[in-house]
Amino acid sequence: MAVNINTVYQTVLYIINKEQRGYITPAEFNSLATQVQDEIFQSYFPDGNQVNRVNQNNTQNDTEFFDMFKDISYKLYPFESVFDFSYDSTAGGWFGSSEIYKLGEIISTYKGQPQFDSITQLASKKDYDKIIRSKLTAPTKKFPICTITHVTSSTSVSVPIGSLLIKVDPIPDILKINCLKQPKRPRWGFTVGPQGQYIFQGGSSTNFELDTSEQTNIITNILKYCGIIIKDPTIIQTAEQESKSVEANLKS
Questions:
Q1: Of the ranges 20-24, 83-87, 106-110, 155-159, the best mean pLDDT one
Q2: 28: in domain
Q3: For residues 220 and 28, what is the distance between their CA atoms, to the nearest angstrom?
Q4: Domain range for 102
Q5: DSSP state string for the chain
Q6: Per-residue model confidence as pLDDT tens digits over 97-132
Q7: 238 in any annotated domain
Q8: Is position 109 within any domain?
Q9: Cα 166 from Cα 93, distance rounded (Å)
Q10: Rounded distance, CA 32 to CA 82, Å?
């Protein structure tokens, strides 16, 4: 389940206003919320690698509800998706959504008798160009190869700027990729009341897409940035202490 954006904002306001330390506007909060969500999301990958090293040493707790590696993987499940890519002959490749954060397994499907799927090897552009030009290493439908670029200028009306462009050799009939997508930007939506107050609007709001177990982590990290904006070092210190305590408890 997602973390409720209004719960987080009201908690942050309560803490920083408890001793009249200042105020964070919705616009400031939304910017901080996006920053913190991205930081937490990106931390899953180095944290997963760290825990995996512990697994390899056979010192990791693998009890059903206390397996750290499984817990991190669980937090990423909502972001996993199989994306269908579309081929554009003008651009000379397959293009996909700009929401993609990380690519997983790339599957090229070749129709025929019989139809079959091939796991596609990803290579740098330099290696890709070298491999497809060589008769000895030329890719086949059984062993296709691909390279990836980001579209920075429009070469085709159907390929949006910012999307991924994937060149595959030999060109498949269907291209599907297991991906992790970027979490949506959190937003505390509001209207302005008659006294100039901000009134929460759930319909125009977007909750944090992170797991509910991250709520405390989200709040403490937002508070650290609030302390910088308000220029109150005590908020930063308190939030950092809480954040370190939570992190130490999780990794110990």
A1: 106-110
A2: no
A3: 16
A4: 77-181
A5: -PBPHHHHHHHHHHHHHTTT-----HHHHHHHHHHHHHHHHHHHHHHHHHHHHHHHTT-S--STT--HHHHHHHHHGGGEEEEEEEEETTTTEEEE-TTEEEEEEEEEEE-SSS-EEEEPEE--HHHHHHHHH-TTT---SSS-EEEEEE--S-SSTTS-TT-EEEEEESPPSEEEEEEEEPPPPPB--EEE-TTS-EEE-GGG-B-B-S-GGGHHHHHHHHHHHHHHHHT-HHHHHHHHHHHHHHHHHHH-
A6: 778 888 899 999 999 888 999 999 999 999 999 999
A7: no
A8: yes
A9: 5
A10: 30
Structure token digits, residue 38: 């991205």
Q: Domain for residue 202, yes or no? A: no
Task: Dig out the tokens for 242 from the structure.
Answer: 């809480």
Question: Given its phi and psi angles, is residue 32 left (phi above 0), alpha (psi -120 to 50 degrees) or beta?
Answer: alpha
Q: 109 CB contacts (<8 Å, ≥6 apart)?
A: 115, 116, 117, 118, 172, 173, 174, 175, 176
Residue 7 near residue 215 (C-beta atoms within 8 A): yes
Number of domains the chain is built from: 1
Confirm if 192 and 199 have CB atoms less than 8 A apart.
yes
In angstroms, rounded to a whole number, what is the distance separating the alpha carbons of residues 217 and 15?
15
- pTM to 2 decimals? 0.75
Enter the tokens of residue 163.
């999307």
172-228: per-residue pLDDT in tens?
999 999 999 999 999 999 999 999 889 999 999 999 999 999 999 999 899 888 876
